[in-house]
Amino acid sequence: MKKLFKTTVAALAVSSAMFAGAASAQQKIGVVDMMQVFQQLPQREQISQQLQTEFQDRFEEMRQLEQKIQELRQKQERDASVMSADEKTQLNRELEQLVAEAQLKSKALQEDTRRRQSEERDELLGKVQNAINSVAEAGDYDLVLQSNAVAFMKSDNDLSAKVVEEMSSNSGN
Question: 98-122 pLDDT, tens per residue?
Answer without folding.
Answer: 999 999 999 999 999 999 999 999 9
